[in-house]
Amino acid sequence: MPFFKIMKAVELKNVSFKYGSGENLAVIKNLSLSVEKGEFLCVLGENGSGKSTLAKLINGLLLPDSGEVEVFGSNTKDKKSVYEVRKKVGMVFQNPDNQMVATIVEDDVAFGPENVGVSSEEIGERIDFALKAVGMEKFRFVAGQKLSGGQKQRVAIAGALALKPEVLILDESTAMLDPMGRKEVMQVAEKLNDEGMTLITITHYMKEAVKADRVVVLHEGEIVVSGTPEQVFSRPEDLKKYGLDVPRATYIAEKLKKSGVPIKSGILTEEELGEELCKLFQNR
Amino acid sequence: MQIISKSLTFSYNEKANFSRRALDGATLTVNEGDFFGIIGETGSGKSTFIQHLNGLIPLQSGTLTVGEFNLTVPKKRKEKKAFLKSLKQLRSKVGMVFQYPEYQLFAETVREDVAFGVKNFFPNASQEEVDFKVKKAIELVGLDYNLVAEKSPFDLSGGQKRRVAIAGVLASEPETLVLDEPVAGLDPVSKKRLMSLLHTLHDTGVVKTVIIVSHDMNDVMENCNRVAVFENGKVVKECEPKSLFENYDDYALSRLGLPVTAYLTKTLKGVGVNVESSYKIEDFTNKLIEKYFENR
Amino acid sequence: MLQDVTFGQYYETQSFVHKMDARIKLLALILYVVLIFVVKNFYGFLVVGAFLIVATIFSRVPLGAMLSSVKGILFLILFTVLLNVFFYQAPNETILFWVVSVESLTFAGFMALRLITLVLGSMLLTLTTTPVALTDAIESLLSPLKVIKFPVHELALVMSIALRFIPTLMAEADRIIMAQKARGADFDSGSLVARAKAMIPVLIPLLISAFRRAEELGDAMDSRSYSSSAVRTKYKKYRLTYRDLIGSIICVISLAGVILLNVYAGGIV
């Protein structure tokens, strides 16, 4: 590898994967994708588009039938480096109830570092740091069962952070939460990204894609749309075809624009839309 | 049928010292023909409330009538027995679709699973009658009977599974359909399809009343003709969706997040522009356009 | 409802007993059980009772939580009492009426006390010790077995995960039962066979759900670098403190007290 080449955080090269056998079961078809260090990538896709499979391919839970998956240069196919990959890629799953190994919050966060042989003193420090990072330090000795969905998912993020990963994948981690819980989890994830964590979120909530650096839309195992949120959400017809939608604010803005209201393009959030509308009405 | 609940109060573990009050005097009326929305935070009592509607949870205090049916549990032993027996009849009239209903599927084929309710509620029905009802229900939820009837429900996609589960409730021909978070976990297009399916069932009179429980303000605003807001086991507001946000500072509402239309109305009011908050996003956008071009 | 069963669930507080080493508490429980079975007279139970009272006070566990356990086995206690009242026979009985004698009543009371103190003692352990600490303690106490390649760690992990998922699966069962009831299922009437059959629509979804959860948990564990062969460390280092010493002394004194009373006060009085 040339010395000057910047190493990608995640790199998928012509990856194909299918469960079982049969002709039409391919879930990931010849997919190539790379994620820069520190990037916030959002993967959108309808149910069954292959987005969760993609996540599992990245941290080596699944191995590609063909093609290569590399995380900071370590190939997941390499039996020796797959543990390195898993240390580097923290993953949070959908169901908040199915990820906790231990009953008490701190014991659960300790699980990862225990697995890789971190000393007891350092595990203590890592629990401090990880729970603080997700704002759950007050709940250290609480039983996970007593937490709300959003809090459980924050503990799950802490559990991943305790392994000091470079990449954090949220695999539909907000799907089962209420609006408050979704907000909590997304705020934590965005904060971590601001501090330098490479973030990959997999979701079908359009709202969660608007703050991403880049959005890719997955459909039947292929990337069909890719670009900044502004670019992606300016194609509502395409999105609909792939089972998706645009954020409500974008929908309203586009409709206003079509009727001749001189509103700027690329509005993604309600806040932006509100601000823009106020300006428009005042300058009318 | 009309549903009238007065001061409904319910505690889990009523007698234990660690009991938790889930409902605390919930008063609410749902009229026949409503597409009713129940909204509230997790733990506000909305699920406990709907589980009262078909007697899954016994009444502790307050009164509840569902059509002709009085849900007060009789004290006398004999009457209580008759009451418990009659619950079955009530359950056939008030269809209840739980959160993630696909997790209750169990039979080997879609047909058998959908028939489960029919056979329970109409034990004397002939095989032809059962088959007829099952076929009708599967078609009502927009699935192709010939394609799915003999398939295992576990081989279907997530959205299809949910439809099968709903068919399983529809098959016993309920008058009122209650759904707890019916679109949870679905992608935007499946979500829209399911919502419009519910509207079709309602508009064509397959079910007279629909009650949906949700914590998504936008869903409720865009779909319901009446809304009740639950907070700490009480109904703090019961109104038409468009009047829901007349008082923006309501704690429960602000925690649930304003729907986009109400948010914009509020923001524009701040700069002296009054746009009537309409709950349908299309109507609202049209009003915005009208407002922008008026007096120019 | 199923999920409300709090039987012996960890009661969260930071008391003297809570802070004791789980291994000591486990050994103390074993000793305690021995104690209960060597007690020969009611004076012995005074010692056991005093021990329980002291332990409960120092555990700061509410009395209600302790006593709820007795309620849970009330039927068993009654059954034992009745059985002993009617079937216990002693030489030279003082018959009160029919087969009921002073001796059979005394013995029945004795057995009931034995059961109650047994449950209260075990309850105190589970109320003051997290399942994790308990499984860690078992793992630690069994660790000599590693020499013969016995999978001690795996066993402990399986136990703690099982404990962790009990409430989750209870809640799930509750939900499924409700959902099937809403579809007209009847779990409360009919013959035994009919009732067993009625459980199928509950058991199948529950089983499927358990498998789904297991799969997700497996993925979650894998992605947190779990591997049974790896060199694991433990976050919690259990060190014996003055508390454990005091606790052990109290246990030993109680045992000695009971034995002395057995010797000097004789059989059941």
Annotate the secondary structure layout:
The complex is a heterotrimer of chains A (284), B (296) and C (269).
Chain A: E1 10-18, E2 26-35, E3 40-44, H1 51-58, E4 66-71, E5 74-75, H2 82-88, E6 89-92, H3 105-115, H4 120-133, H5 149-161, E7 167-171, H6 179-194, E8 198-203, E9 214-219, E10 222-227, H7 229-233, H8 236-241, H9 248-258, H10 270-282
Parallel strand pairs in A: 3-8, 3-9, 6-7, 7-8
Antiparallel strand pairs in A: 1-2, 1-4, 4-5, 9-10
Helix pairs in contact in A: 3-4, 3-5, 4-5, 5-6
Chain B: E1 3-12, E2 20-30, E3 35-40, H1 46-53, E4 61-66, E5 69-70, H2 77-93, E6 94-97, H3 110-121, H4 127-140, H5 145-148, H6 158-170, E7 176-180, H7 188-203, E8 209-214, H8 217-223, E9 226-231, E10 234-239, H9 251-256, H10 260-270, H11 281-293
Parallel strand pairs in B: 3-8, 3-9, 6-7, 7-8
Antiparallel strand pairs in B: 1-2, 1-4, 4-5, 9-10
Helix pairs in contact in B: 3-4, 3-6, 4-6
Chain C: H1 16-19, H2 22-38, H3 42-59, H4 63-72, H5 74-87, E1 95-97, E2 100-101, H6 102-128, H7 131-142, H8 152-182, H9 192-198, H10 200-223, H11 242-265
Antiparallel strand pairs in C: 1-2
Helix pairs in contact in C: 2-6, 2-11, 3-6, 3-11, 4-6, 5-6, 7-8, 8-10
Task: Summarize this structure as a short list of keywords or feature phrases.
A: 284 residues; alpha/beta; Rossmann fold; 4-stranded antiparallel beta sheet; 10 helices; 21% strand; globular; B: 296 residues; 2 domains; 6-stranded mixed beta sheet; 11 helices; 10 strands
Summarize the structure.
The complex is a heterotrimer of chains A (284), B (296) and C (269). Chain B is an alpha/beta fold and 296 residues long.
